[in-house]
TrEMBL record:
Name of the protein in its database record: Reverse transcriptase zinc-binding domain-containing protein
Phylogenetic placement of the source organism: Eukaryota, Viridiplantae, Streptophyta, Embryophyta, Tracheophyta
Occurrences of domain Reverse transcriptase zinc-binding (ranges): 60-144
Pfam families in alphabetical order: zf-RVT
UniProt-listed InterPro entries: RVT-Znf
Amino acid sequence: MVEEMWDQNSGHGNWNLNFLRDFNDWELGLVGDFLQILRSHKPSGEEDSILWKKGRRGQFRVKEAYNLLVRSDDIGFPSRSIWVTRVPTKVCFFAWEATWGRVLTLDRLQRRGLQLPNRCFLCGCEEESVNHILIHCTVVRVLWDIVFGLVDVKWVFPETVKEVLVSWRGSFVGKERKKIWDAIPLSIFWTVWKKRNRLAFRGGGGGVLNVQKLKNFFVCNLWSWAKLYVGEEAFSLIGFLEWLASP
């Protein structure tokens, strides 16, 4: 209970928190910010109760909860950009986890208390987070540049995976190519994550990243998915790239 953490006998009252473990060095700033926020709050003295923030008068109502669920688009969750037709289910699940920030990148492992150095396995320059490894890493940008170079598009990248999927549009590619266009972010995410794990757990061939092989893997993976949409013998790899780039 909240009242158990409040010491009324200390002057005007004060927070008396008991933490279960010692803090890591990288957590001290977060704890300080948390304590600073607490200083501006004081328990009211009323009995603790549970409030439903999304309803009137703090009371839970099934109708209001239902309306929140059916209006999921209002909060911008990119369901249609995650559950893309004919994309392997495991890839869609990975994109879903990445959108929620649940992928076990090094920053999340550190928050769980593991003592690990945090450096991106691909670029080796920045700290690894889900948004960095899938969007902002300089190595990963090479894959995005392949796509935008084919269709001659300039795009300012959003900050998060969720924002990328929400804003991913393909009206300019035409109806025929729209399905494979929708699958492109998922293909990039999956390509990057598989390569990241090879470097992290198996050394990836001495720990040396071959960017050209990464690019080849991405293009071939996307090509194999495209065959599911337009037919197995529709075109060669070069033909696929020309088709994707055609106006």
